[in-house]
Specification:
This protein has about 230 residues and is an all-alpha fold. The chain has ten helices and no strands. The longest helix is centred in the first third of the chain and has 24 residues. Pfam families: MazG.
């Protein structure tokens, strides 16, 4: 695999040197492709392209995402900042540090491990806190550009892991929103409810994406900072 990866990196370097289109790419111009290729991976998984018969579809989409990663790394190598080797080594070190239930600090395998997901998450969070000591909130590092639903879900997940309560929102009448939201059961009914919420919002001229982002901002603004 090492030789194949090295050859791929060489091919991309040659494209940057000899292909006018590839040579003109920048970090900024690549962003739309990175986003598009990532969504195509999601689509391939959701379409069920993970079995032996049609896994080639997913393999190809993953290759397109890897191409984006290698291009970004190549741009930085040309600028004299870092190379794809630094990216790989940095990721390897991070995975070792953040998974002490699997690895010793030197990268050798631990003699025993744990099957407790909560313990694994605590170890991950502790390692991350050491790596990023300037972060004072459990929500630091969540990309603000995430789609609103993903942003809300990630924010609430971080809150729960940090022990921050996620209370029901208040309606205009002062009653909790949980009393106003129809009862739903399962993914299909939830999807229909979200679709109907968007329909009502757009009929009233409200941008549902912006409304949900604003709700996330209100929640994070009122949450306490991280404590040791």
């Amino acid at each position: 695999m090492g030789q194949a990866f090295t050859r791929l990196a060489q091919v991309i370097a040659l494209l940057r040197e000899r292909c006018a289109w590839t040579a003109a790419l920048t970090h900024e111009s690549l962003l739309e492709y990175l986003l598009e290729e990532s969504y195509e991976v999601i689509e391939a998984v959701e379409a069920g392209h993970t079995g032996a018969e049609d896994a080639a579809e997913l393999s190809g989409e993953l290759g397109d995402v890897l191409f984006q990663v290698l291009l970004h790394a190549r741009l930085q190598e040309e600028a004299g900042n870092f190379s794809i080797l630094d990216v790989v080594e940095g990721l390897t070190g991070k995975m070792i540090r953040r998974n002490p239930h699997v690895f010793h600090p030197d990268g050798t395998l631990a003699e025993s491990t744990t099957g407790d997901p909560a313990e694994i998450e605590r170890a991950w969070d502790a390692a991350k806190k050491i790596e990023k000591p300037r972060r004072g909130s459990p929500f630091d590092g969540i990309p603000a550009s995430l789609p609103a639903l993903a942003l809300a879900a990630k924010t609430q997940h971080r809150a729960r892991r940090a022990g921050v309560a996620v209370p029901a929102a208040q309606t205009g009448t002062g009653a909790s929103s949980s009393a106003a939201v129809p009862v739903w059961d399962g993914e299909k009914e939830l999807g229909d409810l979200l679709f109907e919420t968007v329909r009502q919002a757009t009929e009233r001229g409200i941008d549902p994406e912006a409304a949900l982002r604003a709700a996330v901002r209100r929640f994070t603004a009122g949450s306490p900072p991280m404590t040791d």
